[in-house]
Amino acid sequence: MKKFALTLFLISFLGVGAYQIVTKVNLNPQYQVGDEIDALNGIAVYYNGGVNHVSERNLSADGYNIGLKYQCVEFIKRYYFEYLNHRMPDTYGHAKDFFDKGLKSGELNSQRDLIQFSNGTGALPKVNDIVVYDASILNPYGHVAIVSQVNSETQSIEIIQQNPGPFTGSRETYVMDENQEGWSIQHPNILGWLSQRKPFVNL
Question: Does the model's pTM come out above 0.70?
């Protein structure tokens, strides 16, 4: 029994170590870290290789923290800063931390100075909204992306993202569903979305 437990521990330890190594190197010879692979409204999406690869911190000329190159958070903060002229009061945190689970849908997320909508009870997502994904077994940090298109005819959205992995595209499409409480994006890890729109008003 002890041998089995020790073997299981060693396999788990080696598996975690291998995962950490693999996710920090570039396995796709088609691109180099820092290559521009997409853009939205003139704001570039850069290739990062392994999802856990980290480069230097990107700071604005006046010291505003945009994020670690070329992580997913860096793209959405750079997009909001350069295209939407939006500075987030809290400039740190992992992707999953962009969503405050203690807020009701439609309330102000003061850390990001954006209105937060929960998946399943939110207002219809719009272009430029930030989609927030929860952590998962292989990704303890979560993920963030930006809504690049909303198609009312097919009830779907397209998102644009940075650092989805060396072999995953920068754009994905998700189906939306409307119920009595609001809209949901059909993806199990999506917590909700953040928006510059005004909060809900109870009449």
Answer: yes
